[in-house]
Design a protein that fits this description.
Layout (H helix, E strand, L loop, with lengths): L1 H7 L18 E5 L4 H12 L3 E6 L2 H13 L7 E6 L8 H11 L5 E4 L18 H25 L8 E5 L3 H4 L8 H5 L5 H6 L5 H8 L5 E5 L14 H7 L6 H13 L11 E3 L3 E2 L5 H6 L9 H15 L4 H8 L4
Helix pairs in contact: 2-11, 4-5, 5-13
């Protein structure tokens, strides 16, 4: 109960734009970077000298966000670039990665920030997948896997554990997730309970930590906190009214992501761990959730989830799978 309470009323952030070191020379991708927490995070990183790619589906919204970001005064600003990516359309993922790699030789941090919550019942992606799973899981997984060669290459010249992949979660994982962790049957037949479906898309950080930690890529997940954003736009009107007193400015959520990006309190051994608002490691994750994220050999489901996602993406992109597979599973 204490941990849950502290997510509603977090302690003050320890890392903000006021004490953020220069980000000059570092390259970031922020999915969903033109609204809400993503916009606030992109603004802070840009003002600190970083090069930020705003990844999203609408170039019009992206360019409007870029104009807004550049309108705020900064002593030593960096760069901000729009990158077309629709996470609910897997066909856009590889072109986005190819575009990025044609412009950059490094990637310091990938913020898997974009998400959808409680869309209209029956909403599906361009490939026919349930929309939570497509936007929050399949798309980010494929995007991350295709960027792994660039992330790994960046570790060769970056300080230890500073190349990171940040996944976005929610306190509902603590509150409403099944005691069995991931419910495999729900992957094939999404439940009618929208919150349960949303929860089932939040198991990726641990699997990537197992996969990429040995090469120096640190994978973490974070709850950015309860914020006033568009994430609740599909919920009943009364949800917004009832929750308003517990919602914070989106910039507070950006402080959580800043801490996950830059904190020296985490090392490569902390891969897969969960960060709470506004920047602190979860002191006591649910034991059943930790058990579910273990590998199949250790009695968990971590690798099983990866296998299911890979199979789904393979079926959706069968004509392009040979190229994608060579990036997902490189020899050696």
């Amino acid at each position: 109960m204490g941990v849950t309470f502290s997510q509603f009323f977090p302690p003050q952030p320890t890392l903000t734009e006021a004490n953020l070191p220069s980000q000059k020379g570092r390259v970031f991708i922020v999915t969903g970077g033109y609204s809400g927490v993503g916009l606030e995070l992109s603004t802070i990183l840009y003002q600190a000298g970083g090069k930020v790619y705003l990844a999203g589906r609408s170039e019009e919204k992206g360019q409007a966000a870029i104009s807004k970001i550049k309108s705020d005064p900064a002593d030593a600003p960096g760069e901000v670039v729009f990158l077309h990516l629709a996470l609910d359309d897997l066909a856009t993922v590889r072109p986005a990665v190819e575009r990025f790699n044609s412009l950059e030789g490094r990637l310091d941090v990938l913020f898997n920030n974009a998400a959808v919550s409680n869309p209209p019942q029956g909403s599906v992606s361009s490939q026919g997948h349930e929309l939570h799973m497509a936007t929050n899981c399949l798309g980010p997984y494929l995007f991350t896997q295709l960027l792994l060669p660039t992330l790994r290459r960046t570790t060769e010249t970056a300080p230890s554990a500073t190349v990171r992949v940040i996944w976005t979660s929610s306190m509902i994982v603590d509150v409403t997730a099944s005691k069995h962790g991931l419910i495999v049957s729900d992957l094939e037949t999404p439940p009618s309970d929208q919150q349960l479906s949303y929860t089932n898309t939040k198991f990726l950080a641990s699997s990537l930590a197992t996969q990429a930690g040995s090469s120096g890529v640190l994978s973490l997940t974070q709850n950015p906190g309860n914020r006033k954003t568009q994430l609740t736009r599909h919920m009943p009107w009364w949800v917004g009214v009832a929750s308003a007193p517990l919602l914070y400015n989106p910039r507070m959520g950006a402080y959580t992501e800043l801490w996950v990006d830059l904190s020296s309190d985490v090392t490569i051994q902390d891969g897969g761990k969960y960060v709470l608002p506004w920047g602190r490691l979860h002191p006591s994750p649910r034991p059943d959730m930790l058990a579910a994220m273990k590998t199949k050999e250790d009695g968990g489901m971590g690798v099983l989830l990866n296998s299911w996602i890979s199979a789904r993406n393979r079926r959706s992109l069968s004509g392009d799978w040979a190229t994608i597979s060579s990036c997902l599973f490189p020899k050696g």
